[in-house]
Automatic annotation (TrEMBL):
Its main location: mitochondrion. The keyword Mitochondrion applies. It holds the Pfam family E_motif. It is found in: Mitochondrion. This is Pentatricopeptide repeat-containing protein At3g13770, mitochondrial. It comes from Spinacia oleracea. GO terms for molecular function: RNA binding; zinc ion binding. Residues 550-642 form the DYW domain.
Length: 642
DNA sequence: TTAGGGTTAG
């Protein structure tokens, strides 16, 4: 009797220990099926023998129930084993097993992970009951596959059903708030977040600040970031990336430095965002330093990071380094190719663009995409290879690479035709293309009219532009330049009146130059730089010397209605001239000058830089909003077309 | 069981 009792106690203890190890699912346990089958299945699964595990399930038939399905479905999810998962699902149906909520949710997760959203949704719709996890799993499936509106509408349905969202749901749903109404949806979710007190949760907070940053609301992003009770790599990276994406490059770099000092950990994503900011600044010395950090930390094998480095070096003007990074990537993605192609294109190196594009086609490992063709077409345009570009467009239309041109590619063709002076043909092309012309397309044609001094087409195009984009000052400037160059001052005056009427404002011009790892920024007519007086003197000195050599300030670049003397003063205050003067003051004779400008360079500054390169024997490179100008001996790589 | 940040182009 005593012996039997003792035995029962041992059995009971065994069951209890099993219960605690399998958490809350103990009610399904039976000594008959568990533990031998369970441990056998687990062993098979962990050995990767999913097939054998399935066979074992089939042999055991209905005896398996929860534990068996759970074990094998778990393994299917971990390995994204769709076929095996489907067989388990079929097995459930065949044996008329009625899965509980937990297993149904596992099926939803499995199908979502394997990109079978319809199957996931089917299981989800058939669920007799749902909890926050099943809702979140389905929302996450949509969210991660880019089906934002489905995810958002499911989120709304979830709230209506009375299920409260948790931190997982909120962090998953926020990334769906993109596009036109993204900010509105985002703000509504923000209010839900506040209601449930998740604003300072690190995952929810990073998602929230990212949403604001992507909507261009940097201050709101910053407010969320400042309110986080705990910060980690992701939230910090999100903030740095937010700054970088919106062009707050200095803030991005400063935040990175500050956080580094505070001991924040960083990973390859952090460096990617940091490189974006350094690319914007064209801070070559700092970029090289970051490259060294990446090498030392052995992060260099991330393709994303290598792509960022190609872009950084190209935007800093060093194509040789960019190419070296490109050549060392073992598995290039389409973005690696594009970054390199865009690099050559912006530097006006048309033949390099074509050569690399041929290599890409010949290798055939990576398919060109929309950006590839934009880079190739604009590369032909910047490099003065109009007919080659037009030929490639024809190949696109003929579907040589299985890729149809979109409106932006049509825009490139307008650019190519305009550049080669075929303005009437460009007008006809716009008229016949299958898209409605955008302001950018008219804008590029207007630029072409200015370069080729074609008033007739220019007037027509200008009127179209002012109609679509009355607030864009750049359009008035080009049109006014066009009238001025034809001596039609009456029209220039009318245009100026029109500008005043529409209260057009221009983004303030800004240029900078990197000297010994420090960026020196100048604004138009800047009086804030510590060496402003020296700079001013230098510009005056340059003006005298350049005039002796034949330079004549192009007063038509000034739109204000003032005396010519005043116009010359305004021109001499242009930020790129200040940066060039400062460069001459701070570097030794013969060394190259590298200036960055936030807007497109004006004709007068371009001419000014050409004279400097010739008279002072300097290679001058200027990166403007559109492209690089490499000026040597008074000749610019853009061929005076930009 | 479910979650957040990143690269080219414009």
């Amino acid at each position: 009797m005593l012996k039997t009792l003792k035995q029962s106690a041992i059995v009971a203890k065994h069951i209890l220990s099993l219960s605690s190890s399998t958490k809350s699912f103990t009610r399904h346990l039976s000594i008959k099926t568990f533990p031998p089958l369970q441990s056998k299945l687990s062993a098979l699964c962990s050995n990767g023998q999913l097939q054998d595990a399935l066979l074992e399930m089939a042999v055991q038939g209905l005896e398996i129930k929860f534990e068996g399905y759970d074990t094998i479905l778990n393994e299917c999810v971990n390995r994204k084993a769709l076929r095996e998962g489907q067989r388990v699902h079929t097995h459930m149906i065949k044996t008329q097993y009625f899965p509980p909520l937990y297993l149904r949710t596992r099926l939803v997760i499995l199908y979502c992970k394997c990109d079978c959203l319809d199957d996931a949704r089917h299981v989800f719709d058939e669920m007799p009951e749902r909890n926050v996890v099943s809702w979140t799993a389905m929302i996450s499936g949509y969210s991660q596959n880019g089906f934002s509106s489905e995810a958002l509408s499911l989120f709304v349905q979830m709230l209506r059903s009375g299920t409260e969202p948790n931190e997982f749901t909120l962090a998953t749903t926020l990334p769906c708030c993109t596009g036109d109404c993204g900010l509105d949806y985002g703000r509504q979710i923000h209010s839900v977040i506040i209601r449930y007190n998740y604003e300072s949760h690190v995952f929810v907070g990073s998602s929230l600040l990212d949403m604001y940053a992507k909507a261009g609301k940097i201050h709101e992003a910053q407010r969320v970031f400042d309110g986080l009770v705990e910060r980690d790599v992701v939230s910090c990276t999100a903030m740095i990336a937010g700054y970088a994406q919106l062009g707050f490059d200095v803030e991005a770099v400063e935040l990175f430095r500050r956080l580094l000092k505070e001991g924040m950990s960083s990973n390859y994503v952090t460096y990617t965002s940091l490189l974006t900011a350094l690319s914007g600044l064209a801070a070559l010395d700092q970029g090289k330093q970051v490259h060294n950090h990446i090498l030392r930390r052995e992060l260099v094998s991330y393709v994303v990071l290598q792509n960022s480095m190609i872009d950084m070096y190209a935007k800093c003007g060093n194509l040789m380094y960019a190419r070296r990074v490109f050549d060392r990537i073992p598995e290039r993605s389409v973005i690696s190719w594009n970054a390199m192609l865009v690099g050559y294109s912006k530097h006006g190196m048309g033949s390099n663009v074509i050569e690399l594009f041929k290599l890409m086609r010949a290798e055939g490992k990576v398919k060109p995409d929309s950006v590839t063709f934009l880079a190739v077409l604009s590369g032909c345009s910047h490099g003065g290879m109009e007919d080659t570009g037009l030929g490639i467009f024809d190949e696109m239309v003929a579907q040589k690479d299985g890729f149809m041109p979109n409106i932006e590619h049509y825009g490139c063709v307008v650019d190519l035709l305009g550049r080669s002076g075929r303005l009437e043909q460009a007008l006809k092309f716009i008229d016949e293309m299958p898209y409605k012309p955008t302001a950018a397309i008219w804008g590029s044609l207007l630029g072409a009219c200015k370069v080729h001094s074609n008033i007739d087409v220019g007037e027509y195009v200008g009127s179209k532009l002012v109609e679509i984009e009355p607030e864009n000052a750049g359009n008035y400037v080009i049109l006014s330049n066009l009238y001025a160059s034809a001596g039609r001052w009456e029209e220039v005056r009318n245009l100026r009146e029109l500008m005043k009427e529409k209260a057009v404002s221009k983004e303030p011009g800004r240029s900078w130059i990197e000297i010994d790892q420090t960026l020196h920024t100048f604004h138009a007519s800047d009086r804030s730089h510590p060496r402003k007086d020296e700079v001013q003197m230098k510009v005056k000195e340059l003006l005298v010397r350049l005039k002796e050599a034949g330079y004549e300030p192009d007063l038509s670049c000034v739109l204000y209605d003032v005396e010519d003397e005043q116009k010359e003063k305004i021109l001499m205050g242009h930020s790129e001239k200040l940066a060039l003067a400062f460069g001459l003051l701070s570097t030794c004779e013969g060394s190259p000058l590298r200036v960055i400008k936030n807007l497109r360079i004006c004709v007068d500054c371009h001419n000014f830089a050409k004279f400097i390169s010739k008279l002072y024997g300097r290679q001058v490179s200027i990166r403007d909003k559109n492209r690089f100008h490499h000026i040597k001996g008074g000749v610019c790589s853009c061929g005076d077309y930009w």
